[in-house]
Amino acid sequence: MSETETKKPARDPWDLPDVSGLVVGVLGGTGDQGRGLAYRLARAGQKVIIGSRAAERAREAAAGLGLGVEGTDNAECARRSDIVIVAVPWEGHAATLAALREELRGKLVVDCVNPLGFDKQGAYALKPEEGSAAQQAAALLPESRVTAAFHHLSAVLLQDETVDEIDTDVMVLGEKRADTDLVQALAARIPGMRGVYAGRLRGAHQVESLVANLIAVNRRYKAHAGLRVTDVQETRDR
Description:
The structure is a single chain. With about 240 residues, the chain is an alpha/beta fold. Helices cover about 35% and strands about 20% of the residues. It has helices at about 30-45, 55-65, 75-80, 95-100, 135-140, 155-160, 175-190, 205-220, and strands spanning about 25, 45-50, 70-75, 85, 110, 115-120, 120-125, 145-150, 170-175, 195. An 8-stranded mixed beta sheet has the order 3-2-1-4-5-8-9-10. The protein has a two-stranded antiparallel sheet with strand order 6-7. It is globular, with a radius of gyration of 18 Å. Keywords: Oxidoreductase.
């Protein structure tokens, strides 16, 4: 570096964009996880649209939430949203996304699906051919910006109107910093929640798989456990 050059200051990892004006769509918003996320984001002031295979079912779920949430079919939800959260059951993950490839073109897609199996011993992780649900989404949606987040949240807490804050961190994975920053900022809209960058999509399987362990924790301790990443503090707090 020459004497005339100046070194750029390190970028504050917590300097996140304003996402308050973006429309968030939730595919699978009639299920427990999707409905809970829709409720929390709408309660935080985000414009939210619930998507479902059946528009009427989505409208009924939206009416139950209130807060200005709208309900429609998955295709219309995808078209009208800036950020689309995928919260569909694993069994329908591939078919749902393949059918929405055109509607999701250019969109920021946030996959929170956990491929799990269940037997007499409890929950266990499945590994898709692509490596993870998020990587499957990226393969099916090559013209979308796919990220992974919101895997470890308790649907019970998300839907509980008496709970004001969700005390947890959200692991966010993706290929581009601009996209993961947006998802981190979206997570931070929910009181008590924080989005933490956790690597590229190739690491999504570990994050998705951890849900099986959390299910075991919750059953043993009758809890609604989440995650906290230690020793990662916002710059302004140091």
